[in-house]
């Protein structure tokens, strides 16, 4: 697939605590949290750990769908995210200025017409299917739980006082539950990974239309960032777009 990614501090925050990586069959996004730039440390640690551990798997030659061991790849993703959790937690324990730091982490490994996901927090992975966004991940947030239980509607998320409260994050405790998923990628399907700074200000339909207008994935990602900034850019914004075609990762 062809991939592009972009990240921006936004219009309100002083530092960008989001981090991303894309290339060679893998997309990763992390949205750090914590005082005094600790969030920046957390998202960077998460990214570096999973890219180190999974990068070699993402770039090894594909074996053909019948021989590809997708379960083993999914376990490797689970282990890598747990390793990232331990790394962040250990740093936070060792340095009082980093205490309480944490991060979201959403990663997608693309192999043989499938996408394998690992996910913790409220960043999102979407399938781009027939020009529409299909959200693959569930937000690990208080408001998402409220939506699931029927307490509020999806439209009410962005106005809710608890919209920033996560129910799961990486690095804030010794253990973590990681959502793992395998999804078939159709020949014309694409992927979007993003942080909540994008989805807080743009509706899924608006995001889909912007991506459809830009065949080049880097231009699509850049255009999404511009659109979020035009809406006030209240948070750090990160968008990664992968579309069908020869290039990185396929
Ligand atoms: Mn954010």
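Sequence proposed for the structure above (250 residues):
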């Amino acid at each position: 697939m062809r991939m592009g990614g972009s990240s921006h501090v936004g219009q309100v925050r002083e530092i960008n605590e989001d981090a991303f990586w894309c290339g060679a069959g893998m997309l990763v996004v992390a949205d750090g949290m914590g005082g005094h730039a600790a969030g920046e440390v957390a998202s960077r640690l998460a990214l570096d750990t999973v890219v180190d551990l999974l990068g070699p798997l993402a770039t090894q030659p594909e074996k053909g769908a019948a021989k590809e061991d997708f379960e083993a790849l999914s376990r490797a993703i689970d282990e890598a995210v747990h390793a990232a959790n331990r790394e962040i937690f250990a740093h936070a324990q060792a340095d009082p200025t980093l205490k309480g730091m944490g991060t979201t982490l959403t990663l997608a490994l693309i192999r043989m017409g499938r996408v394998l996901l690992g996910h913790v927090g409220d960043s999102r992975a979407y399938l781009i299917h027939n020009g529409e966004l299909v959200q693959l991940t569930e937000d690990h947030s208080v408001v998402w739980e409220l939506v699931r239980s029927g307490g509020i509607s999806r439209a009410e998320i962005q106005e809710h006082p608890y919209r920033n409260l996560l129910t799961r994050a990486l690095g804030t405790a010794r253990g973590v539950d990681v959502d793992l998923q395998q999804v078939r990628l159709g020949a014309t399907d694409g992927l979007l990974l993003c942080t909540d700074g994008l989805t807080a200000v743009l509706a899924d339909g608006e995001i889909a239309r912007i991506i459809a207008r830009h065949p080049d994935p880097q231009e699509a990602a850049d255009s999404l960032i511009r659109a979020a900034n035009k809406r006030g850019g209240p948070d750090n914004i990160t968008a990664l777009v992968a579309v069908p075609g020869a290039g990185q990762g396929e």
